[in-house]
Amino acid sequence: MNPVMTVEELNRFLDSDFPEVHTDGRVFEVVSVGPGTATMRFDPLTRHLRPGATISGPALFTLTDVAAYVTLIAHIGPVALAVTTNLNINFLRKPGLGPLECCCRILKLGKRLAVLDAAITATGDTKIVAHATATYSIPPK
């Protein structure tokens, strides 16, 4: 399963079709794409923290959703109307304020549905902060 879009094309697609993802400045960036995989970097701001100085669950959920979507379109092309139908996330550790990476891989890519898993780690660390599975609906051609 080889990607059909490059890192540069994916970042341009997010900029043009989903500019709201950068409303408060550029905090999301696609950093790599490979066969069945993609990785996104998240540079959280202090507004992404919750009490206890940890990155909030909604911020981690957003990172996961955007990264899984990017992984899918990297492999099927720029389909703006592919939508999340399910996303389940498990928060495993408290990440402090600092860059995170979300590595996603496609588990199944069908004609109408795709299933992916995602692992969030602090950049440069191997300990998983959160793990998720996601299902996306792919519109008919």
Automatic annotation (TrEMBL):
It comes from the Bacteria. Residues 54-127 form the Thioesterase domain. It holds the Pfam family 4HBT. InterPro entries: ACOT13, HotDog_dom_sf, Thioestr_dom. Keywords: Hydrolase. Belongs to the thioesterase PaaI family. This is Uncharacterized protein (TIGR00369 family). It comes from Pararhizobium capsulatum DSM 1112. The lineage of its organism: Bacteria, Pseudomonadati, Pseudomonadota, Alphaproteobacteria, Hyphomicrobiales.
